[in-house]
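Below sits the subject:
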Amino acid sequence: MAKFITTSIVVVITMVLIAIARGAINSTICNVDSTELAQCLPTISGKSPPPPTKGCCKVVRRVDMKCLCNYKSVLPSFGANPKLAMALPKKCGMKKRSKC
């Protein structure tokens, strides 16, 4: 289950990055607005990322995880660390986790 949630977070971040790269501001990705997904970007990039914010965790809890699993492999091309993205559900205190 943890792998699913982690994979889902990665997908969310990937979706946000794709939306930003395409200029798709305020578009909906896996049931969440792309501008909301952007709240998680600092937490999954860089060498010493900060912990997820309350806003990021709120978004992670609302996103369609099965949808986001489709974007996991794209994260590195946008500078996002898949391992950090996969850790978001746990860092946000999510107990129910599903696999992709």
